Amino acid sequence: MSNTETNWFRRLVEWCRPISQEVGALGSAASALIAALAFVVAVAGIFAVFIQIRSNDQSERERIAQDTYREFLKLAIQEPGFANGEHRCSTACANPKEKYEWFVSYFLHAAEQIEDAFPDDRGWCKALASHFCTHHAHLETTEFKSQYVHHYSKSFKQLIGDSLKQCPHEPDPKIYFKFCDSRTAT
Fold first, then answer.
1. Residue 104 contacts residue 135 (beta carbons within 8 Å)
2. Using CA of residue 171, residue 167, residue 105, residue 139, what is the dihedral sign?
3. Which residue range forms the structural domain that includes residue 20?
């Protein structure tokens, strides 16, 4: 190669060197930006999965609570005496008091599931409070208070207690159970 060609080539290389350094710096910045963006997308994905899992968990708790309550209502239809707070079977049965206690136990299980799944729902609160009042004679016994009430959560025991304090002679959820109005959902 001649000197002229070599000089021209050197000038071209020297002229391109700052450009290539700038392009390299831009490439590094672009790589860092893409990595940061990938991190943000990954965190958003993890957050979305967490939200979905919580939503599914809540939906499942609500479904179980409603199914359990539906089964309680079936029992109430089969044994209307128990549903009205009486210790009598609709058909001849041995030991109706014991069967009634198991009926109330099943109701309390369903009610606790509902209270857990719908803690801020005034409608459910008043419905449960009305049932508590129907069974107040059993729920206020020394036997229940000493042997069974400790099986339930603090918030559920509070709901039972608040309900029993306001039991009317003629239950009217529109007038009674004002403590339910402090709940946020309708």
1. yes
2. negative
3. 3-182
